[in-house]
Amino acid sequence: MLNQIKILAQVVESGSFSKAGQVLNMAPSSISRAIDNLEHTLQSTLFRRSTRSLSLTEEGEYFYQESIKILFDANKLISEMKGDRAEPQGMLRISVFESFGNLVLAPLLPRFLAQYPKVKVEIDLDNHMVDLHSENIDIAIRIGTPQDSNLKARKLMPNLTSLVATPEYLAAHPEIKQPEDLQHHNCLLISHARQRNYFYFSNDTEQRRVPVSGNLASRGGSPLLSAALCGSGVLLLSTWMVEPYLKSQQLVEVLPSWTARSSEHDSGEIFAVYKGMEYPKPHIRAWLDFLVKELNGS
């Protein structure tokens, strides 16, 4: 049964029989037979199956959560008997939004791979929200608290934002004294597929919502940052993206006495999200621990 549990766990992690078969080097029909045999042994239906989706039943979710504890303990015992410590190894597939992937993760990857030489990384820079249940992704990096209760999350770092522009832009346009003054400026916007865009401001005593507009919108921050550096407008973006340019004074803060956000309910945090495994595989756990240590500076 232990082998069937391994297959079950891989199906859940991969999201389909065919993808699990690719990982385990088994035919999808063999995967299906193993799950059928396991369901027959348990006298329970573990999966809801259709031509378009595969999901655990309530009984399947319970068995999966309990059985992976057994799988973890078994793997740990085998490692102890073999005299090793389950060195992290295998393919690690990461989905991350483009700007964070390029600016923050990319410089960290060589150190991680040097520390764990048996791990291979495949990184997908995509500003679209991936579905970890249906796509072959181990970890996704996201801004904001995950809404899917079936996913686990590790907080990596705060996602503070800064309202900035070039000194040249500010000198050539009307002075910005209050948040409402932004209505008369060209604001460079993260695209949220909304008809209207707002910036949300707060200080010790007030909260304000200001409608903003501009001639450039993007799902990712990099095009907006390039435009802001050319003096095209006012930009509200993650501080970790604009901080080098604030230090060099290519950009300056606008309305520094106010805290500005692009969403009313923004959590202000960046998370690593992974499928609901109580005991993630060693290479997944190693990457999570590495990220938390590097990004928290601890």
From TrEMBL:
An MF annotation (GO) of this entry: DNA binding
Family annotation (InterPro entries): LysR-type_TF_proteobact-type (IPR058163), LysR_HTH_N (IPR000847), LysR_subst-bd (IPR005119), WH-like_DNA-bd_sf (IPR036388), WH_DNA-bd_sf (IPR036390)
Domain HTH lysR-type, first and last residues per copy: 1-57
PROSITE patterns from the UniProt entry: HTH_LYSR
UniProt KW keywords: DNA-binding, Transcription, Transcription regulation
Pfam families assigned: HTH_1 (PF00126), LysR_substrate (PF03466)
UniProt superkingdom: Bacteria
Record family assignment: Belongs to the LysR transcriptional regulatory family.
Name of the molecule in the record: LysR family transcriptional regulator
Species of provenance: Photobacterium swingsii
Taxonomic path: Bacteria, Pseudomonadati, Pseudomonadota, Gammaproteobacteria, Vibrionales
